Amino acid sequence: MRRLALFLLIMQFAPICVAQQDRSIEADQLFMAGRRLDALPLYEQLAKENPNEMLYAERLADCYSAKALQYDEKTDKEMIVHYRTLARDSAKNAVALGDKTIYIHSIAGSDPNNTAPLNPESIASGLLNEGEKAYTAGDFQTAFQEYTAAAELDPKLYLASLYAGDTAFTQRDLATASKWFARAISIDPDRETAYRYWGDAITKYGNDPMGAREKYIQAIIAEPYNSLAWQGVKQWAAIENAIVQAPRIDRPTGAIENADDPKNIKVIMDPDFTNEQKQPGSSAWVEYMLTRAHFQTEEFKKEFPNEKEYRHTLAEEHEALSAVAEAVKAKHINQQNLDESLRNLLMLFDAGMLDCWILISNADEGISHDYPAYRKDHRQLLHVYLDKYVVRPGTTPGK
User: What pLDDT score was predicted for residue 395?
Assistant: First the structure.
């Protein structure tokens, strides 16, 4: 009889344990997906059934805090106080059970009657630090939890979304990683990191070379003067037997005399650079030097009246290269007889890509200041330039 009673006892409680385990798995999945309100009733039941489980107390506090945020401070103060009280009590329980996370300690020490919003920035920064500690220790699940919590508290915190995506990537979850990388990009589309990380994730787990290439190109558009932005596409090119190389346009160097007297400006250049017998059309490069001299002495002050000192600008370089292209065209020379630089110059000039080439492939310190404004209005054009003229099919890996 005692054996039968024990068997009946086991049969009685086994379904309960299985059901509890299912609730725990479901709650965890909802929480990790950022669906805290959906996870709340599950954690309420789990915390009630397991009052000494720190994780349930911690997550219940987090979910109650999320619930309090759903109410309006002016019209629903009582509900806010109610859920913040529940959040504080659950957080205190988690702390008593050994929880050391900054976020939970902040909730545990909060005043539920103060319905003004908590300081999300400082708490989110603390969560970010906690996530970094967990990530470094190899506890990726906790790291992801901290990063996503930080992202919810401070929706403008780029690093929280970036690191959440990177942690999901580390765990080989491409779908989740993509979601968080996309969120980071929506926060700041002009930072290269999320694009590059996303490209790396696709390269490793997505089996989609062209999809990865797209992300790497977007990284360059975001920050073309950051060497890291080029790192991803160069590694991709080595794998995919492609070429990352801008069209070559060698421009002349020389001296300008009488720059202060526009009517008597004199250009001194290497005579071989403008030798028509050796290179048909090359005398047009004189226009490059003359145009730049004219821009520096007269046009710069007109176009940039608010700048105190001269700098090399996109406008100047565009005008100078356009003058060369127009001079070559006026000579009606067969393009096959032109050297590589002039052929490439005409190709880009005719395609409307001169500005893209100047900014992406040949910018100096002065010109780089013009990039943000240009990118704002010409992002798609920059993409076409990189896609068509820079990241191209190759024949030799790594070149």
Answer: 53
Q: Which residue has tokens 């007297």?
A: 261
Write out the chain in H/E/C secondary structure: CHHHHHHHHHHHHHHHHHHHHHHHHHHHHHHHCCCHHHHHHHHHHHHHHCCCCHHHHHHHHHHHHHHHCCCCCCCCHHHHHHHHHHHHHHHHHHHHCCCCCHHHHHHHCCCCCCCCCCCHHHHHHHHHHHHHHHHHCCCHHHHHHHHHHHHHHCCCCHHHHHHHHHHHHHCCCHHHHHHHHHHHHHHCCCCCHHHHHHHHHHHHHCCCHHHHHHHHHHHHHHCCCCHHHHHHHHHHHHHHCEEECCCCCCCCCEEEECCCCHHHCEEEECHHHHCCCCCCCHHHHHHHHHHHHHHHHHHHHHHCCCCCCCCCCHHHHHHHHHHHHHHHHHHCCCHHHCCHHHHHHHHHHHHCCHHHHHHHHCCCHHHHCCHHHHHHHHHHHHHHHHHHHHEEECCCCCC
Q: What is the pLDDT of residue 291?
A: 86
How confident is the model at residue 33, as a pLDDT? Answer: 66
Question: For residue 388, what pLDDT is reported?
Answer: 96
Give the global pTM: 0.69
Smallest CA-to-CA distance from 243 within 385, 353, 397 is with: 397
Cα distance between residue 273 and residue 277, in whole Å: 11
Counting as low any pLDDT under 50, the low residues of the chain are 1-16, 396-399
CB 77 within 8 A of CB 115: yes
* Contact residues for 103 (Cβ-Cβ < 8 A; gap 6+): 62, 123, 126, 127, 130, 146, 149, 153
Give the list of residues 6+ apart from residue 204 with CB closer than 8 angstroms, or none.
Answer: 169
pLDDT of residue 2: 38
C-alpha atoms less than 13 angstroms from C-alpha of 44 in its C-beta half-sphere: 12
Q: Tell me how long the chain is.
A: 399
Residue indicated by tokens 């490439």? 344
